[in-house]
Each structure stands twice: as structure tokens, then as C-alpha cells.
Amino acid sequence: MKESSNIKITLALSKGRIFEETMPLLEEAGIQVAEKPEKSRKLIIQTSDPNIRLLILRASDVPTYVQYGSADLGIAGKDILIEHSAKHPGSLYQPIDLNIAKCKLSVAVKKDFNYLDAVKQGARLRVATKYIKMTRDHFAAKGVYVDIIKLYGSMELAPLIGLADAIVDIVSTGDTLSANGLVAVEDIMQISSRLIVNKASLKNRGDKLKPLMEAFRRASN
């Protein structure tokens, strides 16, 4: 059995851009990270504060760990949070937009594909994506019927081999699209990453969490 006095604050992060852009926020809060996940296989990383540790997870798993209390706090992109909230409405407290890991959720097609004709009201489109809710909502608002093909990676391949007419995916620089003969034709949403909080942790351990939350708020402004 854990002793409550020894339970650390756990912050869930994903590798890559979110981790790298979170580091300056932690440093401004006076917290140094002992190791970088790219150089270590560890999934639990200690910090200079003995009461704060990091969990390194897949981006899509961060909200789940926070929802079920395995992490007190987490940082996840707005895209991930919208999809998670569609299945688990009201499961997370999302107090702060950290304004990091900015990108766009966009529709992309082959360069020679006539997208304007393909999205006339009443048309039908095959779209490959892992962002089911946002894709369905976007095209429903345009009056376009979509057959959604759920993929988890290598999205750019789908239009090239005829699996889909279009893809909906995260776009940062557009280099990957260009390298595969695709072009972004419509932006659905601007994306940034948010701090998320387990509701029970905030209720029961708010005195420990709120100083860190406030430090994140100050650092992100």
C-alpha cells in the first residue's frame, strides 16, 4: 500500500515536440529533468524536485492516464483532447492553453485532385484519418458525405494508392505532404497543447497541484 505522504505529483508527456517545448516551461518553474526520453528507455523520469516525476507515453494515451488518475496532470494537443472528449465527455479538466507545439489540422489531397468539385454540397468523399470526430463534423457542416477510413500512421499513402480521396491530418511545415505529392487544401483547426488535470487529484491534492499549475500558466503567457 502506498503512503499518501510519499505519493509524487505525476505529469504525463509524450516524446518529441511536446516534450521539448514543455522543458522551458518546467525550467521557468524551477524544475530540471534528469534525462531526455530520446537518450533513455525509461518511461518514468525523475526531476530535480523529488515530489514531481514524468511519465513518457504515446500522445494518444496521455488523456487516458490522466482521466484514470495514473497521472495527476498531462500535456496533450487539442486534436487528441477533442477526440478523447468525444468518447469521454467531461472526463478531464483543461485549464490552460500552453501555446506550445502549434500546428494545424488540415485536409490534404493529391496535387492533381479537384478538391473544390469534390466537396460540392451533397457530394461523397472517402477520407483517411485518425481524427474521426473532427473530420465528420467538418464535412457535415459543408453538407458533404464522408466515408471515413481510420488509419493510425502513414496517412499520406492513402491518396497515392487510391485508398482515399483525401486525408485529414496534423500539418506543421507541410514538408511531408510535399515529399509525397500532396497539398493541404483546407485548414480545419489551429492546434496547440493544453495542460490537463485529473479532477479527483485536483479535489484531493489541490494544495500540491495548484502551485505547479500556476507556474505553467505564468510560463505560457
From TrEMBL:
- Native source species: Candidatus Kinetoplastidibacterium desouzai TCC079E
Q: Which reaction does it catalyse?
A: 1-(5-phospho-beta-D-ribosyl)-ATP + diphosphate = 5-phospho-alpha-D-ribose 1-diphosphate + ATP
According to the UniProt entry, the note on domains is: Lacks the C-terminal regulatory region which is replaced by HisZ.
- Alphabetical UniProt keywords: Amino-acid biosynthesis, ATP-binding, Cytoplasm, Glycosyltransferase, Histidine biosynthesis, Nucleotide-binding, Transferase
EC assignment: 2.4.2.17
Q: Which HAMAP family match?
A: HisG_Short (MF_01018)
Out of the domains of life, which is the source?
Bacteria
Q: Cellular component terms, GO, for this chain's entry? A: cytoplasm
GO function term, MF aspect, one: ATP phosphoribosyltransferase activity
Any idea what this protein is called? ATP phosphoribosyltransferase
Q: Which gene is transcribed and translated to give this protein?
A: hisG
Question: Would the keyword Zinc turn up in this protein's UniProt record?
Answer: no
The protein's location, in the record's own words, is: Cytoplasm
